[in-house]
Amino acid sequence: MRVSGLNWQGLMEQLQEALPYCEVTDQSLAYFKYPRRSVKMNLPVKMDDGQVRVFQGYRSVHSNARGPSMGGVRFREGLSLHECEVLAAIMTLKAAVADLPLGGAKGGVDVDPETLSAHEQEGLTRRFTSELFELIGPNEDILAPDVGTDSQHMAWIYDAFNEGRGTSINGMVVGKPMALGGSYATKDARGQSAAMVTARALEDSGQGVKNARIAIFGYGDVGSKAARLLQAQGALIVAVSDRHGAIYSSSGLDLPALAEHREQGGSVCGFALDISKDELLELDVDALILAFDFGTVNAGNAHKVRATYLVEATNRAVLPEAERYLRERDIQVLPDLVAAIGGVVVNYVEWVQSHTNFFWTADEIEAVAEQHINRALDDVMNVMEQNGIDMRTAAYVLALSRLNSATEMRGVYP
């Protein structure tokens, strides 16, 4: 269900809706409209069969107005530089909403990682890192896991960077294994923020979380964490999906039993009533949490969505043309700039720990993340109420205002 709607024009059109509600100078807007730096790389890698294959790699830094850039490295077939530039801009906005001293970046490789052996993935990761030696660092550009990468890839980046430069620095990459200075809660931080935002929306609507019907599209680390947190508050998780398919139970799924089923069979399928992933998107539920990838809800399927709330637990899960249509139907989108903010918050915490070599416990990190998420949500909702606007527009207003302040104070290099 890959779509091609992740584009700069759509982002700019949504930003235009925020401009009447904030004071942003033309100078600041000019800075935002263009990435600070975009790099395209040819990455030759020796494969297991002895042949050399050349991959396309990218890294885009959108902004460092508020601090060094930070953003994921994704291994995804069809990845383009344009996609990286749009996602880098979204990371800039997300960090500003969370009021963190960071800018946004994104990068990766056009590859399906499942077609590569572990040895080939390591070679590709190290080659990607070596091409960025002079551009990345704890005070320049910080790499993080994303679609198709995990803590092991971050460990390879950590080693390649330090071996190549003769250093022992760990703050230039986050999402690392614990043994290399990684942080607790990295995997499921976006699930925490998605659950918190969903619960707040349900409570504010008067319905409450108890017995609310929730569907999860993308039952990985993020989706499963959101499901567990919401179920603990009394919600019914009625449907979940993975890359193999989807399941449904009107009375709610037994999540611990589902975890055992997945561990044994490698999929959620067969645990309850099997349905298609498209059928999951069409369920009449109180909240549909989108935890897969961008473009899950688009112009082609938005008319079939019946959920009261769509929660973007991943970047750009609802494309702009779909969101305009959903707004006309009074279906509310809880945007990535708030619902997926937990990831950048916990990555920031790991970055701080790397700088200080002082590490917190899992409970302390979760409490810090909750504090940042609640503060960001409060700030966005205050802007919503003051201006009578939707949550995404309010998040843009807040982010652009903070970016404008930083840009104006720093000035323009003559």
From TrEMBL:
The active site is at residue 106. One of its GO terms (molecular function) is glutamate dehydrogenase (NAD+) activity. The record marks 146 as: Important for catalysis. InterPro entries: Aminoacid_DH-like_N_sf, Glu/Leu/Phe/Val/Trp_DH, Glu/Leu/Phe/Val/Trp_DH_C, Glu/Leu/Phe/Val/Trp_DH_dimer, Glu/Leu/Phe/Val_DH_AS, Glu_DH, NAD(P)-bd_dom_sf, NAD_bind_Glu_DH. Residues 187-411 form the Glutamate/phenylalanine/leucine/valine/L-tryptophan dehydrogenase C-terminal domain. One of its GO terms (biological process) is L-glutamate catabolic process. Keywords: Oxidoreductase. It holds the Pfam family ELFV_dehydrog_N. SUPFAM superfamilies: Aminoacid dehydrogenase-like, N-terminal domain, NAD(P)-binding Rossmann-fold domains. Belongs to the Glu/Leu/Phe/Val dehydrogenases family. PANTHER family: GLUTAMATE DEHYDROGENASE (PTHR11606), GLUTAMATE DEHYDROGENASE 1, MITOCHONDRIAL (PTHR11606:SF13). This is Glutamate dehydrogenase. It comes from Deinococcus radiophilus.
